[in-house]
Amino acid sequence: MKKLLLATALSTLAGAAFAEYPEKPITIVVPFAAGGPTDKVARDLGEALRTKINQVIVIENVGGAGGTLGASKVSKAAPDGYTLLLHHIGMATSPALYRNLPFKTLEDFEYLGLINEVPMTVVGRPTLPANNFAELMKWLEANKGKVNLANAGLGAASHLCGLLFQQSVKIDMTTVPYKGTAPAMNDLLGGQVDIMCDQTTNTSGQIESGKIKAFAVTTTKRLTTPTLAKLPTLDESGMKGFNVSIWHGLYAPKGTPKAALDKINTALKAALKDPEFIKREEALGAVVVTDNRVNGADHKKFVEAEINKWGPVIKAAGQYAD
Fold first, then answer.
1. Shared-domain flag, residues 101 and 128
2. Quick one: 185 and 48 in the same domain?
3. Does the keyword Signal apply (predicted)?
4. Which residues contact 214 (CB under 8 A, 6 or more apart)?
5. Does residue 9 lie within any of the structural domains?
6. Domain CATH code at residue 301
7. Do 111 and 183 share a structural domain?
8. Per-residue pLDDT tens for 115-124?
9. Per-residue pLDDT at 239
């Protein structure tokens, strides 16, 4: 009986301690360099969250090792609600990509909710002879073994989409990894590489300005933004079932008190309904999540399903990192 009373008292004190949460700035760790697509999502979300949770939101970029350094830092951070992680699909692909992953994806984090889903686009250098997807396929067939496929590094969104694209078209290409999205795009613009499969957050502006060629989107439905609405889907172009979106989610270290998690999740849900945030995401071709995956439990179920989806793809390609 005394133990029960003590446990109740401690629980009450813990709840009281977080009643005023947050009392200081909250740091959102982005496991990639500043200026990239995930950093853009984090900064837009941080601005929306700031007004919902009434506290300063600090964005900290901890890049390296395909996002695993930043994620590892958060997994080991104090579980007090003041250090969060905003990560993309790498949360689900890291278990297959890295043999010595310094954290356990489904065990070392509290899941707060999914933020958005970002379609991918198949794009090419401006001097590529092809002008539509059918012409691209003919060009790829005619240049087997000579095509350079760029990506932003092992585990990056462009790497994952590129793997699935190669498997679908059954054409071997030379994969050219870069240290980030910006240098990969720069070489595509300059014609040093031929094609890339990358997020709309990174390609929309270049497509709109006519600096690169766009051939298709990776969702099963066409996009509605003016820049991308005319692009066919890979599914309708003959790759039945091809569906890749790069999502972003929010996480806290395992053991973060429920009172803090509830406040963050409530603020997150409000931020995802913020008109300015929605406007910014839609301008990039991203779709803000509004379904049950904004809840922690459903977010975690979704990530587990994504782990099961991407594991076989990565293992079949045989591309790993220590």
1. no
2. no
3. yes
4. 121, 122, 123, 124, 203, 207, 228, 231
5. no
6. 3.40.190.150
7. no
8. 999 899 999 9
9. 93
Tokens of 240: 């039945």
Instruction: Give residue for tokens 């697509």.
Output: 37
Q: Does some domain include residue 8?
A: no
| 170 exposure class (CB count in 10 Å sphere: 0-12, 13-18, 19+) | exposed
CA distance 153 to 160: 10
Q: What tens digit of pLDDT does each residue of 292-302 get?
A: 999 999 999 99
Same domain, 131 and 208: yes
In a domain, 222, yes or no: no
CB 106 within 8 A of CB 273: no
Structural domain contains residue 15: no
Residue 202 and residue 143 share a domain: yes
- Say if residues 202 and 211 touch (Cβ distance below 8 Å): no
Q: What is the dihedral of CA 167, 193, 36, 275, to 10 degrees?
A: -70
Question: What does the pLDDT look like over 206-256, one tens digit per residue?
Answer: 999 999 999 999 998 898 888 889 999 999 999 999 989 899 999 999 999
Distance CA 73, CA 83 (A): 9
Tokens of 244: 């890749």
Q: What local confidence, expressed as pLDDT, does residue 3 receive?
A: 44
End-to-end Cα spacing for the chain = 51
> What range does the domain containing 203 cover?
119-217
Identify whether residues 160 and 190 lie together within a single domain. Answer: yes
What pLDDT is attached to residue 321? Answer: 66
Q: How many Å apart are CA 289 and CA 280, to the nearest integer? A: 14
